[in-house]
What we know:
Blueprint: E1 3-6, E2 24-27, H1 33-44, H2 52-68, E3 80-83, E4 89-102, E5 105-118, H3 126-135, E6 141-147, H4 149-155, E7 161-162, E8 168-173, H5 176-187, H6 197-206, E9 224-227, H7 230-236, E10 246-248, H8 254-262, E11 271-277, E12 283-290, E13 296-304, H9 309-322, E14 327-330, H10 337-340, E15 346-350, E16 353-358, H11 361-368
Parallel strand pairs: 1-5, 5-6, 13-14
Antiparallel strand pairs: 2-3, 3-4, 4-5, 4-10, 6-16, 7-16, 8-14, 8-15, 9-11, 11-12, 12-13
Amino acid sequence: MHVVSANAGPGKVVAPSVLESHGSVRPLAAEDLESVAALFLTKFRRRRRHLLDRAIAETADYMREIYLDPAGQSGASNALVQVNRQGRLGGFLGVLKARYELNGAALNAAIIGPLMADAGTDDGSAGPQLLRALHQGEFDLQLTDSANRTSLAFARPMKYQLLPVHCLGWTCIFRPAAMAAAALHRKWPGLPRLALDPCARAFDALAKRRFELPVQASSSQRVHSEPITSAQFAERLPTLLSDYSLRPSWKDGELPRLLALAAEKRADGPLHFGGTYDETGKMLGCYAFYGQAGDIASLLQIQASGSHWRATLDGLIAAAWDMGCVGITGQPQSRFMPQLFGYKNLFFRYAGGTMVRSRIAEVTEAVRAGDIFIGGVMGDRWTRLSSDDFGR
Protein backbone atom coordinates (compact mmCIF):
# COMPACT_ATOMS: atom_id res chain seq x y z
CA MET A 1 0.00 0.00 0.00
CA HIS A 2 1.61 3.23 -1.17
CA VAL A 3 -0.02 6.58 -0.46
CA VAL A 4 0.88 9.22 -3.03
CA SER A 5 -0.40 12.50 -4.38
CA ALA A 6 0.18 13.29 -8.01
CA ASN A 7 -1.12 15.34 -10.88
CA ALA A 8 -2.51 12.73 -13.23
CA GLY A 9 -3.06 15.02 -16.17
CA PRO A 10 -6.37 15.09 -18.02
CA GLY A 11 -8.85 12.65 -16.51
CA LYS A 12 -12.21 11.35 -17.53
CA VAL A 13 -15.33 12.58 -15.80
CA VAL A 14 -16.84 9.77 -13.77
CA ALA A 15 -20.27 9.59 -12.22
CA PRO A 16 -20.26 9.15 -8.44
CA SER A 17 -22.90 7.07 -6.74
CA VAL A 18 -23.80 9.37 -3.86
CA LEU A 19 -22.06 12.71 -3.37
CA GLU A 20 -20.81 13.56 0.11
CA SER A 21 -19.22 16.74 1.45
CA HIS A 22 -15.81 15.63 0.13
CA GLY A 23 -17.03 13.45 -2.70
CA SER A 24 -17.93 9.77 -2.72
CA VAL A 25 -16.39 6.32 -2.95
CA ARG A 26 -17.58 3.56 -5.26
CA PRO A 27 -16.18 0.37 -6.86
CA LEU A 28 -13.73 0.70 -9.72
CA ALA A 29 -15.41 0.55 -13.14
CA ALA A 30 -14.01 -0.05 -16.61
CA GLU A 31 -14.39 3.60 -17.58
CA ASP A 32 -12.06 4.60 -14.70
CA LEU A 33 -9.10 2.51 -15.82
CA GLU A 34 -7.27 5.00 -18.04
CA SER A 35 -7.48 7.77 -15.43
CA VAL A 36 -6.31 5.42 -12.66
CA ALA A 37 -3.47 4.15 -14.87
CA ALA A 38 -2.34 7.71 -15.65
CA LEU A 39 -2.36 8.59 -11.95
CA PHE A 40 -0.32 5.48 -11.14
CA LEU A 41 2.29 6.07 -13.85
CA THR A 42 2.75 9.76 -13.16
CA LYS A 43 3.87 9.12 -9.61
CA PHE A 44 5.24 5.59 -9.44
CA ARG A 45 7.00 5.36 -12.79
CA ARG A 46 7.70 9.06 -13.54
CA ARG A 47 6.97 8.33 -17.18
CA ARG A 48 7.82 10.98 -19.75
CA ARG A 49 4.84 12.43 -21.59
CA HIS A 50 5.80 11.09 -25.06
CA LEU A 51 5.87 7.53 -23.66
CA LEU A 52 2.75 7.87 -21.54
CA ASP A 53 0.00 6.82 -23.96
CA ARG A 54 1.36 3.31 -24.57
CA ALA A 55 2.11 2.85 -20.88
CA ILE A 56 -1.41 3.96 -19.89
CA ALA A 57 -2.96 1.40 -22.23
CA GLU A 58 -0.79 -1.46 -20.93
CA THR A 59 -1.28 -0.49 -17.27
CA ALA A 60 -5.04 -0.14 -17.73
CA ASP A 61 -5.21 -3.60 -19.34
CA TYR A 62 -3.28 -5.10 -16.43
CA MET A 63 -5.47 -3.37 -13.85
CA ARG A 64 -8.51 -4.75 -15.66
CA GLU A 65 -7.03 -8.25 -15.37
CA ILE A 66 -6.38 -8.16 -11.62
CA TYR A 67 -9.09 -5.77 -10.36
CA LEU A 68 -12.05 -6.25 -12.72
CA ASP A 69 -11.68 -9.74 -14.21
CA PRO A 70 -10.18 -12.02 -11.53
CA ALA A 71 -11.22 -15.63 -12.02
CA GLY A 72 -14.25 -16.61 -9.99
CA GLN A 73 -15.21 -13.06 -9.02
CA SER A 74 -18.74 -11.89 -9.61
CA GLY A 75 -20.34 -8.54 -8.94
CA ALA A 76 -18.62 -5.20 -8.43
CA SER A 77 -14.86 -4.79 -8.21
CA ASN A 78 -13.26 -4.80 -4.76
CA ALA A 79 -10.95 -1.94 -5.82
CA LEU A 80 -12.31 1.51 -5.02
CA VAL A 81 -12.21 4.99 -6.53
CA GLN A 82 -12.93 8.31 -4.85
CA VAL A 83 -14.85 10.84 -6.93
CA ASN A 84 -14.77 14.51 -5.93
CA ARG A 85 -17.72 16.90 -5.85
CA GLN A 86 -17.03 17.94 -9.44
CA GLY A 87 -17.34 14.32 -10.58
CA ARG A 88 -13.64 13.76 -11.28
CA LEU A 89 -11.36 11.00 -10.06
CA GLY A 90 -9.76 12.03 -6.79
CA GLY A 91 -8.14 8.80 -5.63
CA PHE A 92 -7.80 5.04 -6.02
CA LEU A 93 -7.38 2.06 -3.70
CA GLY A 94 -6.31 -1.26 -5.22
CA VAL A 95 -7.93 -4.19 -3.40
CA LEU A 96 -7.54 -7.92 -4.06
CA LYS A 97 -9.98 -10.28 -2.39
CA ALA A 98 -8.64 -13.35 -0.58
CA ARG A 99 -9.93 -16.03 1.76
CA TYR A 100 -8.44 -16.77 5.16
CA GLU A 101 -9.39 -19.16 7.91
CA LEU A 102 -8.88 -18.90 11.65
CA ASN A 103 -8.98 -22.25 13.39
CA GLY A 104 -11.35 -23.48 10.69
CA ALA A 105 -13.63 -20.40 10.57
CA ALA A 106 -13.84 -18.77 7.11
CA LEU A 107 -12.84 -15.09 6.77
CA ASN A 108 -12.96 -12.62 3.88
CA ALA A 109 -9.71 -10.68 3.50
CA ALA A 110 -8.82 -7.55 1.54
CA ILE A 111 -5.23 -7.29 0.30
CA ILE A 112 -4.46 -3.59 -0.11
CA GLY A 113 -2.28 -2.45 -2.99
CA PRO A 114 -1.71 1.05 -4.41
CA LEU A 115 -3.44 3.90 -2.56
CA MET A 116 -3.24 7.10 -4.59
CA ALA A 117 -4.66 10.61 -4.56
CA ASP A 118 -4.59 13.19 -7.37
CA ALA A 119 -3.14 16.42 -6.01
CA GLY A 120 -5.00 18.35 -8.70
CA THR A 121 -8.46 17.29 -7.51
CA ASP A 122 -7.98 16.00 -3.95
CA ASP A 123 -8.32 18.16 -0.85
CA GLY A 124 -6.54 15.64 1.33
CA SER A 125 -9.58 13.52 2.11
CA ALA A 126 -9.33 10.86 -0.60
CA GLY A 127 -6.93 8.47 1.17
CA PRO A 128 -8.74 8.33 4.53
CA GLN A 129 -12.11 8.25 2.77
CA LEU A 130 -11.10 5.26 0.66
CA LEU A 131 -9.79 3.34 3.68
CA ARG A 132 -12.90 4.10 5.74
CA ALA A 133 -15.07 2.79 2.91
CA LEU A 134 -12.99 -0.39 2.79
CA HIS A 135 -13.31 -0.84 6.55
CA GLN A 136 -17.10 -0.56 6.32
CA GLY A 137 -17.34 -3.26 3.67
CA GLU A 138 -17.65 -7.04 3.70
CA PHE A 139 -14.12 -7.87 4.81
CA ASP A 140 -13.20 -9.47 8.12
CA LEU A 141 -9.59 -8.32 7.87
CA GLN A 142 -7.56 -5.91 5.77
CA LEU A 143 -3.84 -6.40 5.17
CA THR A 144 -0.93 -5.00 3.20
CA ASP A 145 2.74 -5.91 2.89
CA SER A 146 3.91 -2.85 0.92
CA ALA A 147 2.92 0.26 2.90
CA ASN A 148 5.23 3.24 2.56
CA ARG A 149 5.96 5.62 5.43
CA THR A 150 3.10 7.95 4.55
CA SER A 151 0.72 5.00 4.72
CA LEU A 152 2.10 4.00 8.10
CA ALA A 153 1.54 7.50 9.46
CA PHE A 154 -2.21 7.55 8.98
CA ALA A 155 -3.03 3.82 8.95
CA ARG A 156 -1.71 3.16 12.44
CA PRO A 157 -4.34 5.45 14.07
CA MET A 158 -6.94 3.38 12.18
CA LYS A 159 -5.93 0.43 14.37
CA TYR A 160 -3.69 -1.39 11.91
CA GLN A 161 -1.22 -3.71 13.62
CA LEU A 162 2.36 -3.50 12.37
CA LEU A 163 4.43 -6.68 11.92
CA PRO A 164 7.99 -5.35 12.32
CA VAL A 165 9.90 -8.40 11.04
CA HIS A 166 7.86 -8.53 7.83
CA CYS A 167 8.64 -4.85 7.19
CA LEU A 168 12.27 -5.73 6.56
CA GLY A 169 13.94 -6.95 3.41
CA TRP A 170 17.04 -9.14 3.34
CA THR A 171 19.74 -9.24 0.70
CA CYS A 172 22.38 -11.94 0.31
CA ILE A 173 25.28 -10.82 -1.88
CA PHE A 174 27.04 -13.33 -4.16
CA ARG A 175 29.07 -11.01 -6.41
CA PRO A 176 29.14 -7.46 -5.01
CA ALA A 177 30.36 -5.52 -8.04
CA ALA A 178 28.07 -7.37 -10.45
CA MET A 179 25.19 -6.78 -8.04
CA ALA A 180 25.92 -3.05 -7.96
CA ALA A 181 26.07 -3.03 -11.78
CA ALA A 182 22.73 -4.86 -11.99
CA ALA A 183 21.14 -2.36 -9.59
CA LEU A 184 22.46 0.57 -11.67
CA HIS A 185 21.14 -1.01 -14.86
CA ARG A 186 17.68 -1.41 -13.30
CA LYS A 187 17.65 2.23 -12.27
CA TRP A 188 18.97 3.45 -15.63
CA PRO A 189 18.14 0.83 -18.28
CA GLY A 190 19.92 2.91 -20.93
CA LEU A 191 23.33 2.35 -19.36
CA PRO A 192 25.41 0.10 -21.66
CA ARG A 193 26.39 -3.13 -19.92
CA LEU A 194 29.73 -3.10 -21.73
CA ALA A 195 30.69 -0.08 -19.63
CA LEU A 196 29.97 -1.82 -16.33
CA ASP A 197 30.40 -5.58 -16.67
CA PRO A 198 34.18 -5.81 -17.31
CA CYS A 199 34.98 -3.73 -14.21
CA ALA A 200 32.49 -5.72 -12.17
CA ARG A 201 34.00 -9.04 -13.26
CA ALA A 202 37.51 -7.85 -12.40
CA PHE A 203 36.51 -6.72 -8.91
CA ASP A 204 34.50 -9.85 -8.19
CA ALA A 205 37.43 -12.05 -9.26
CA LEU A 206 39.53 -10.39 -6.54
CA ALA A 207 36.73 -10.74 -3.98
CA LYS A 208 35.88 -14.33 -4.90
CA ARG A 209 37.16 -15.90 -1.69
CA ARG A 210 35.26 -13.42 0.49
CA PHE A 211 32.02 -14.03 -1.42
CA GLU A 212 31.90 -17.78 -1.83
CA LEU A 213 28.60 -19.67 -1.88
CA PRO A 214 27.07 -18.74 1.52
CA VAL A 215 25.65 -22.22 2.08
CA GLN A 216 26.87 -25.11 4.16
CA ALA A 217 27.55 -28.37 2.33
CA SER A 218 24.22 -29.62 3.61
CA SER A 219 22.16 -29.33 6.76
CA SER A 220 21.78 -33.07 6.42
CA GLN A 221 23.24 -35.46 3.87
CA ARG A 222 19.78 -37.03 3.65
CA VAL A 223 18.13 -33.76 2.54
CA HIS A 224 18.31 -32.44 -1.00
CA SER A 225 16.70 -29.73 -3.12
CA GLU A 226 15.51 -29.89 -6.71
CA PRO A 227 13.39 -27.86 -9.15
CA ILE A 228 9.64 -28.45 -9.09
CA THR A 229 6.70 -27.25 -11.18
CA SER A 230 4.21 -24.53 -10.36
CA ALA A 231 1.55 -27.25 -9.90
CA GLN A 232 3.71 -29.13 -7.37
CA PHE A 233 4.34 -25.90 -5.47
CA ALA A 234 0.61 -25.08 -5.41
CA GLU A 235 -0.20 -28.58 -4.18
CA ARG A 236 2.36 -28.60 -1.36
CA LEU A 237 2.32 -25.03 -0.03
CA PRO A 238 -1.09 -25.23 1.74
CA THR A 239 -0.04 -28.34 3.66
CA LEU A 240 3.06 -26.52 4.97
CA LEU A 241 0.84 -23.82 6.50
CA SER A 242 -1.12 -26.10 8.82
CA ASP A 243 0.64 -24.83 11.95
CA TYR A 244 -0.58 -21.23 11.42
CA SER A 245 -3.89 -20.45 13.12
CA LEU A 246 -4.57 -17.58 10.70
CA ARG A 247 -3.81 -18.78 7.18
CA PRO A 248 -5.09 -18.52 3.61
CA SER A 249 -7.82 -20.83 2.37
CA TRP A 250 -7.45 -21.43 -1.36
CA LYS A 251 -10.29 -23.16 -3.18
CA ASP A 252 -11.17 -24.22 -6.73
CA GLY A 253 -7.74 -23.68 -8.27
CA GLU A 254 -7.24 -20.20 -6.79
CA LEU A 255 -3.58 -20.73 -5.91
CA PRO A 256 -2.54 -22.05 -9.36
CA ARG A 257 -4.31 -19.06 -10.95
CA LEU A 258 -2.55 -16.67 -8.57
CA LEU A 259 0.83 -18.21 -9.42
CA ALA A 260 0.06 -17.86 -13.14
CA LEU A 261 -0.59 -14.15 -12.57
CA ALA A 262 2.60 -13.86 -10.51
CA ALA A 263 4.55 -15.41 -13.40
CA GLU A 264 3.51 -12.44 -15.60
CA LYS A 265 5.78 -10.15 -13.59
CA ARG A 266 8.83 -9.26 -15.70
CA ALA A 267 11.18 -7.00 -13.74
CA ASP A 268 13.07 -9.74 -11.88
CA GLY A 269 13.26 -12.49 -14.48
CA PRO A 270 11.26 -15.73 -14.87
CA LEU A 271 9.55 -17.39 -11.91
CA HIS A 272 11.21 -20.60 -10.67
CA PHE A 273 10.07 -23.18 -8.12
CA GLY A 274 12.01 -25.58 -5.94
CA GLY A 275 11.44 -28.11 -3.18
CA THR A 276 13.47 -29.65 -0.36
CA TYR A 277 13.07 -33.41 0.16
CA ASP A 278 14.17 -36.05 2.64
CA GLU A 279 15.55 -39.45 1.69
CA THR A 280 12.03 -40.93 1.42
CA GLY A 281 10.93 -38.31 -1.09
CA LYS A 282 8.77 -36.32 1.32
CA MET A 283 8.81 -32.60 0.61
CA LEU A 284 10.04 -30.67 3.68
CA GLY A 285 9.85 -27.18 2.21
CA CYS A 286 9.34 -25.26 -1.00
CA TYR A 287 10.23 -21.89 -2.50
CA ALA A 288 9.47 -19.68 -5.49
CA PHE A 289 11.75 -16.95 -6.76
CA TYR A 290 12.30 -14.72 -9.78
CA GLY A 291 15.76 -14.82 -11.29
CA GLN A 292 18.04 -14.92 -14.31
CA ALA A 293 21.80 -15.03 -14.89
CA GLY A 294 23.59 -11.76 -14.22
CA ASP A 295 20.67 -10.22 -12.32
CA ILE A 296 19.40 -10.00 -8.73
CA ALA A 297 17.06 -12.85 -7.77
CA SER A 298 13.90 -11.94 -5.86
CA LEU A 299 12.16 -14.32 -3.48
CA LEU A 300 8.39 -14.63 -3.90
CA GLN A 301 7.64 -17.28 -1.28
CA ILE A 302 9.38 -19.77 0.96
CA GLN A 303 7.86 -22.16 3.46
CA ALA A 304 9.16 -25.12 5.43
CA SER A 305 7.94 -27.54 8.05
CA GLY A 306 9.32 -27.90 11.54
CA SER A 307 13.11 -27.70 11.74
CA HIS A 308 13.73 -27.68 7.99
CA TRP A 309 13.93 -23.93 7.39
CA ARG A 310 17.72 -23.88 7.11
CA ALA A 311 17.81 -26.70 4.55
CA THR A 312 15.08 -24.99 2.51
CA LEU A 313 16.88 -21.62 2.63
CA ASP A 314 20.11 -23.38 1.59
CA GLY A 315 18.28 -24.87 -1.38
CA LEU A 316 16.87 -21.48 -2.39
CA ILE A 317 20.23 -19.69 -2.21
CA ALA A 318 22.07 -22.51 -3.97
CA ALA A 319 19.47 -22.49 -6.78
CA ALA A 320 19.93 -18.74 -7.32
CA TRP A 321 23.73 -19.09 -7.19
CA ASP A 322 23.77 -21.98 -9.69
CA MET A 323 21.55 -19.96 -12.03
CA GLY A 324 24.23 -17.27 -12.18
CA CYS A 325 22.35 -14.64 -10.17
CA VAL A 326 24.54 -11.98 -8.53
CA GLY A 327 22.57 -11.99 -5.27
CA ILE A 328 19.10 -12.56 -3.87
CA THR A 329 16.61 -10.43 -1.96
CA GLY A 330 13.54 -11.41 0.01
CA GLN A 331 11.05 -10.63 2.76
CA PRO A 332 11.71 -12.34 6.08
CA GLN A 333 9.31 -14.15 8.38
CA SER A 334 9.76 -14.43 12.12
CA ARG A 335 9.95 -18.22 11.78
CA PHE A 336 13.18 -18.22 9.78
CA MET A 337 14.90 -15.08 11.07
CA PRO A 338 17.26 -17.14 13.30
CA GLN A 339 18.39 -19.12 10.24
CA LEU A 340 18.99 -15.94 8.19
CA PHE A 341 21.38 -14.70 10.86
CA GLY A 342 23.63 -17.67 10.05
CA TYR A 343 24.49 -16.53 6.51
CA LYS A 344 27.45 -14.33 5.75
CA ASN A 345 27.20 -11.34 3.40
CA LEU A 346 23.51 -10.94 4.28
CA PHE A 347 22.05 -7.54 5.15
CA PHE A 348 18.69 -6.18 6.29
CA ARG A 349 16.85 -2.97 5.35
CA TYR A 350 13.39 -1.43 5.62
CA ALA A 351 11.39 -2.62 2.59
CA GLY A 352 7.73 -1.71 3.23
CA GLY A 353 5.22 -1.82 6.03
CA THR A 354 3.26 -5.02 6.68
CA MET A 355 0.04 -4.26 8.56
CA VAL A 356 -3.22 -6.02 9.44
CA ARG A 357 -6.53 -4.63 10.67
CA SER A 358 -9.58 -6.51 11.92
CA ARG A 359 -12.58 -5.94 14.17
CA ILE A 360 -12.44 -9.59 15.26
CA ALA A 361 -10.64 -10.00 18.58
CA GLU A 362 -9.37 -13.50 17.77
CA VAL A 363 -7.80 -12.25 14.52
CA THR A 364 -6.14 -9.37 16.35
CA GLU A 365 -4.72 -11.76 18.92
CA ALA A 366 -3.36 -14.14 16.27
CA VAL A 367 -1.63 -11.22 14.53
CA ARG A 368 -0.20 -9.98 17.82
CA ALA A 369 1.19 -13.47 18.47
CA GLY A 370 2.73 -13.66 14.99
CA ASP A 371 0.48 -16.62 14.20
CA ILE A 372 -0.42 -15.42 10.69
CA PHE A 373 0.78 -16.34 7.22
CA ILE A 374 1.26 -13.10 5.33
CA GLY A 375 3.43 -11.70 2.55
CA GLY A 376 4.52 -13.29 -0.71
CA VAL A 377 1.44 -14.69 -2.42
CA MET A 378 -0.66 -13.14 0.38
CA GLY A 379 0.40 -9.59 -0.39
CA ASP A 380 0.66 -7.43 -3.50
CA ARG A 381 4.39 -7.52 -4.26
CA TRP A 382 3.78 -10.34 -6.75
CA THR A 383 1.80 -8.02 -9.02
CA ARG A 384 3.36 -6.21 -11.97
CA LEU A 385 2.34 -2.94 -10.30
CA SER A 386 5.03 -3.51 -7.68
CA SER A 387 7.97 -3.29 -10.08
CA ASP A 388 7.33 -3.59 -13.82
CA ASP A 389 8.02 -0.77 -16.24
CA PHE A 390 4.88 -0.57 -18.37
CA GLY A 391 4.87 0.57 -21.96
CA ARG A 392 8.44 -0.40 -22.89
